[in-house]
Every structure is written in C-alpha cells, then in structure tokens.
C-alpha cells in the first residue's frame, strides 16, 4: 500500500530544480547519447562540461541549403551531393602519400571524395551507406571533391526530406564525426541554454543593436531556429554577440579587479626626481633617446601623483627599457623607499644585478640580489636587512614574490618580461594589503588590440625609438648544408675581435625530438670546428654558479663563442657579440626568434643572425619568400616565420605577424595571464567589438547603482563563470 502511494507521488514529482551552475558545469557524459567513451573523446577538444559544449563554436558555416544531382555538379563550385557509398579504396602515391578515395552514386552519376594522408578515412565508410559530401568540386577528369565535409546519414534518410541550411562546421577529431559533434552540442543546448542568462540590459542591446545571447547561441549552432532565417547575415550578427560577450567579460573582470585594488590604501609619497637622479643620468656614457626621455617623464609624473602607478613599459628588444626602469627605482630610493625588480629567470636577475650595480657604482645606493639559488644563510641575512626597511634596490626572480619577502618600505615594483608572471598576480607583492606603484616591462611589443584586452587596466608607455648608432641586424635563412661557410664567417668575426652565440633548441638526446643536442654540438664545435677558439656552454641544467662563471667569461670577452639553449633568450646584454646562429630555427616561434636575435646588434658593429632551416619538408620555392642576403648565402624558404624574420627587425611588426599566425591564446599564453581564453573573438579582426565591449563595461560599472539588482546579479554570475569565485560582482562593489 505504502509502496503504491509512493509510486503515485512520483507521477507528480518533477525533476529536482537544479541551479544554472549544476547544469552548466555538469559533465557532457550525462547528456543524451554521450557516454564515458565519447566524453573522453570530447575532452580532447577541450569539452568537458555542458558549458564547454555550448561554447564550442564552429570555425565556419557551410552552405548546404540545397542538395544537387551529381550530374549537375560543375567544376569549381561548392556543392552538397547525396549518394550511396559505392567504392572505397586507398593507394600510395609516388611521394608515398596515402590517398583515400570513396565514390558515391546517385541516380545521375558518380563523384569521388578524396583525402590525403588520412588513412583512417577509409574505415569511416561502408558500401551502401547514405552520405552527404560537401565541398569544392573538381573535374580531374573524374568528378571529385578533395577533403569534403562528410555527413553519414541514417538509413531512413531520404533526400526529399532534406532541410538544407547553413551548417556549422566544428573542429573534429578522429573519434568524433561531424554529426556526432552536432548532436552533442545540440544536446548540451537543450539541457543548458535556458540557464544562460542575458545579462546586458535591454537598453544596451537596443542601443548598440546587439542580439540577445540565447538567440545568438541558437543561430551560431543552428539549433532550434527556423532554417530560412539562418542566413549569413544573421550568423554574422550572432557571432558579433558572442564576441562581445567574450570581450565584455574580460573588460569587466579587469575593471573590477582594478577598482578593487584601488580601494586599498595607498600611502606612498614619491619625491620629484632630485639630485640623485640627475647625477645618475649625467653619469651615463650615452644620452637618453627622446623616447626614453618621454617615457621617463610619464613614469615620474605618475610616481609623484597621489595615486598608484600601474604602467606598462613596452619597447623593442634593446630599446633601453632597463635604464628607464632604473631611473624609476632611483626616484623611489631617493624618496626613502625600497624598489624591487623582478626578472623571469635567474640568469636575467643576475645580469640585471651586475649592470645595475655597475651603473650605480658612483652612487651610495645599495643593491641586493635574492633568487632561488641564494644560499639559505645569505637569504636569511638579506631578508633580515630588507625587512629593516632601508631604502635600496632589491633584484630577484619570482621566488621573491612566492616566498613573501617582507619589504616594509616597498614603494615601487618593476616586473620585467611580464608575460611570464601573469597579469592577475601583480599585487601579490604586498599581500594585497596596500597599493604600491607597479611598472611592468615587456620586450614583446604587444599589438594594440591585445594590449587593450590583456592590459586593459594599465597605462602604457612605449619606447618607439632605438638608441642612436644602432645598425640594423642582417638576417639570413640557410640550409644546414651551408653551415661550413657560417663557421668560417664566425672565425673571421672572432678574429676581428667579435663574439658569437650558437643556439640549439634542446639540451641532450634524452629529449624526445631528434635534434642536434647542444651538448654534443658543443663538443664538436670546441674540439673539431674551433679548436683554436674559446667555446663556452650554458643551458637550463647547468648549475647557477657555473652558469654565472660561463656568462661572466663571455661578458668579459674571454669566451669567443657561447653555445646555448634558449636560456639566453631574455635580456642578456653583451654588445660585443655580433653573430647569432640559431639551429633548427624552423622550430622556434616568431616571438622567441625575435627575442633571441635581440641579443645581438647591441654595439657599434654590424651584427648577423643566421637562421638554420633544418625543415626537410620546406621545399625551396624558387622566387617565393626569397631572402635578400649576401650573394653567397642566397636561399629561399616557404616557412613564413623565417621569411618574416629575414625581412624585418621591427618587433611590433613581428608581434602582429605572430599574432596572425598563432592566434591570441597561443601568442600570449592567455591562460598564463589569468584571463579567460578567447574562443571566438579575434583580436585583430574584432577590434571594433573590443572597443564597444570596453565602453559598455565602463558605462555599466560607472552607473552600477542605477542597474536593477537582477542585472547586477546576472553580470556577477557571468563573470564568476569566467574567472571563478574570486571575482566579486558589480553588486558587491
Ligand atoms: P631592453 O631592456 O629594452 O632590451 P636594455 O635596457 O638592455 O634594452 O639596453 C640595451 C643596451 O643599450 C644596453 O647596453 C644599454 O646600456 C644600452 N642603451 C640604453 N639606452 C641607450 C641610449 N640612449 N644610447 C645608447 N645606448 C643605450
Ligand atoms: Mg631587457
């Protein structure tokens, strides 16, 4: 009896009410048609939760509004055809590529789908299966589509029932085909879309013609939306909405972080640049460039103001940022404060320490260094000194932050090569208790659009001029067969009193890729190629003090050639070094190549950078990307990165090209910055939306008191989704 009542009750029991979080953060595994296996495959696409699936955006849409008869297919047209699988074959070409050919037929004829080097495509088909092929048709003389999009259809499919539309095309893996991916995303939308709230006020949507969020998701995924309304134009409007969503979240997140920091007390009073600074500038054996003077003024004005400085100092490699930072630190010290300079690596921290101590030798200013490898006792002593609050300059690696050194009189933190730290962690130095002045230096010039996003909360100073007398570096791309000439060239340069770097990507054979290991090559260079010269070696596994000995010897000109891995990438400054050979250059990213190259061209002599292109697949296309080099070294390359490097020394241009090639996430390691990754927005193409989003964020923040509490809550939820719980909403002030 009781049992029966219970059962009856169940009839009226609705599903338990779940929160948006519970639904959106639940694993895709529990969606209809997805089990553990498919969930694992989806994870490879970065899709773990319902929210991830909803935000897995197509990279393009394909026009499948119409299925045409195979007979009517014309050369060069984009078509969708329907047929039954007839033949399935694979063969090897002369160049040992695998070609898979699958023919389908309808009542009017045959067409082939062709895939290169995708052996597994063969196993995707069965004879008699119903499929759609879409893509660009070619007549070769057989009718074919290379790399068609494939839709494997259920057996009960009839072309008459086909409701053609613009189909979102997603990135797929071997385990998930197009249809399966669409099903997962649609299941995620059915489950989760109603939990995604529009957080922008009606008025804002109207004023800027922004599509409501849910509608945008429906359109972009062609989900539950009238097929005839799925036009290119609507898709563009929907995409714009989601781009604005991504940018808005970042803009608002940074704004709130900034405002929150601004509420912390700021008690620092820097003095105007005084005698100490003036004397120091006079003592330099060069005069500051106009650009250096300009940014120095921007910084000192900022320091003196009764508000904390949050400034980014950017300038190309070698443009002289360090001196500017040093002047800023002297202003702090002169006013009785401590100043800290943090470097991303130990080598760089030591280098800064040396140069700064030298440059300050004529002054009374105390400089200390504290890094991970400082001995325990010394560390204790230094810490004890620092904690007394004496005005001085403290240089270190990020160990300085992590171990929470007590710096009671810290007035200025300079963070060098900022991208290794992450924008969201800037204030950790003072345990987020008080505000201090912060100067961030970056040698990766940041394209304006990226600066607006990632550094939206920083003022920017740019050194856009190189010190006078710098001679542009000449860059050559060569094949490894030509290295003998390069060695000869190095010999000549060394005989003329110069020094050289030779850089290898990896340390030894235990690394996975079969690259020329630095250690083995070091031996060869030292014993066979340059027996009469002094050759040194540094890499990541060399101990700190040994590293220092080697670097010193090179700095002092006692070592002619320095063989290294990329540990020399940042900040090393040896003006007498005029040659840099980078082996396996095709494996390096543009930013890295530019950083490496920045180690030369720092003195009064012409410098030469030789990029060795060991890429066997890089067929030398005659005339294409031809590189203007010395007559004997003329080479060409199909590698666009190497070609760009040989064309320009301009870090800003290189950064923009890099951003184009790699996309923003990879370019900057956006994950490292603590900001949510951009999934659909394009920092270069969507700059207008970026500005609009920032404007909306600024305005909503400014007038947050006039917003409905409902709206504020929704904005907070959206931000928490992106940044986690640590972010508070506009409603929390
Ligand atoms: P960055 O940190 O921007 O890569 P650095 O500050 O290391 O550049 O400066 C590179 C080199 O140029 C250093 O040897 C520095 O002493 C020198 N330098 C800096 N400013 C000038 C200048 N105005 N004129 C001549 N040399 C300069
Ligand atoms: Mg530097």
Quick summary of this structure?
The chain is of the alpha/beta class and about 725 residues long.
Describe this entry's structure for a reader:
With 733 residues, the protein is an alpha/beta fold. It has 4 domains: 1-63 and 165-230, no CATH class; 66-163, OB fold (Dihydrolipoamide Acetyltransferase, E2P), CATH 2.40.50; 275-463, Rossmann fold (3-Layer(aba) Sandwich), CATH 3.40.50; 474-648, P-loop containing nucleotide triphosphate hydrolases (Rossmann fold), CATH 3.40.50.300. The chain is 37% helix and 17% strand. The chain contains 25 helices and 21 strands. Strand 3 (98-106) and strand 4 (109-116) form a beta hairpin. Helix 8 (232-263) crosses helix 24 (687-702) and helix 9 packs antiparallel against helix 11. The protein is globular, with a radius of gyration of 31 Å. The two termini are 57 Å apart. The relative contact order is 0.09. The model is unreliable at 1-12, 419-425 and 619-636 (pLDDT under 50). Bound molecules: adenosine-5'-diphosphate and magnesium ion (MG). Adenosine-5'-diphosphate is lined by residues 286, 288-289, 292, 315, 317-323, 443, 467, 573, 575, 602.
Helix count equals 25
Query: What Rg do the Cα atoms give?
Result: 31 Å
| Number of DSSP strand runs | 21
CATH class of the largest domain: Alpha Beta
Strand order of the largest sheet: 11-12-10-13-14-9-15
